[in-house]
Design goal:
This protein is of the alpha+beta class. It folds into 2 domains: 91 residues; 83 residues. The chain is 45% helix and 17% strand. It contains 10 helices and 4 strands, in the order ααββααααββαααα. The strands form 2 sheets. It has a two-stranded antiparallel sheet with strand order 1-2. A two-stranded antiparallel ribbon has the order 3-4. Helix 7 runs antiparallel to helix 8 and helix 8 crosses helix 10. It holds the Pfam family Phage_TAC_7.
Length: 220
């Protein structure tokens, strides 16, 4: 017996289910249960790559030195800034949802930074292209040209980081990137943290002490 089924109906069996056809949105964390805070219901976290300014704000939470407690507080602050959630609502998140959020917003910088055991890039210049470009001071900034810093720029970096706090080191990198690139400070602060980390690692790589050589060096 032949059932009276249309071609469209039987062919629809080959279509992927809706939840497979549309992959999860990167940075979207949907909560199993909503969170209520001051009359607002929060059902999801919508995350993106942090900007340099947001990371700088978060490092201030750590104060004079990074400890397990202050580093965790800084991570919560960064998630709250990117998601545009109040801090009190962040505190009500389930631990696993918060851990996913922290991993998402911090991976951009961690994946862009040079591994500690990797030699720095000592190329004479480096060009970074930002797409879309950063919009600041009424202009688009999408092409960053970098080169080896000068002694004066290194001295300024050392002075800026002299306090040796997490905030001071980030501020030192920001000043250095702005000085060498010629970008206005507002544009540097609006950079995605991943691109900024590449720029900062390239420039500070020239400050890394290499093998000892010269007339005062004795081979062991």
């Amino acid at each position: 017996m032949t059932l009276d089924l249309s071609d469209e109906y039987v062919l629809s069996a080959m279509a992927a289910p809706d939840d497979e056809a549309a992959p999860d949105e990167p940075g979207l964390i949907v909560l199993d249960e909503s969170i209520e805070w001051k009359g607002t219901r929060y059902t999801e976290l919508r995350l993106r790559e942090p900007l340099v300014a947001e990371v700088l704000f978060s490092t201030r939470v750590m104060g004079a030195r990074a400890t397990r407690s202050t580093a965790y507080a800084a991570q919560l602050d960064l998630v709250a800034r990117v998601a545009k959630w109040p801090a009190a609502a962040i505190d009500r998140l389930p631990v696993r949802a918060l851990d996913r959020a922290v991993a998402y917003v911090t991976d951009f910088e961690e994946n862009a930074r040079r591994p500690a055991d990797e030699d720095p890039d000592l190329s004479s210049d480096l060009r970074l292209v930002l797409s879309p470009p950063v919009q600041a001071v009424g202009q688009d900034h999408g092409d960053m040209a970098l080169h080896e810093p000068t002694v004066a720029q290194r001295k300024a970096y050392i002075a800026r980081t002299a306090r040796e706090t997490p905030e001071a080191f980030v501020q030192g990198e920001i000043d250095l990137v702005a000085a060498v690139s010629g970008w206005p400070m507002a544009a540097v602060l609006k950079m995605p943290i991943g691109k900024f980390a590449q720029a900062a690692d390239y420039l500070t790589g020239f400050f890394t002490r290499g093998p000892r050589t010269g007339p005062n060096y004795r081979a062991s």
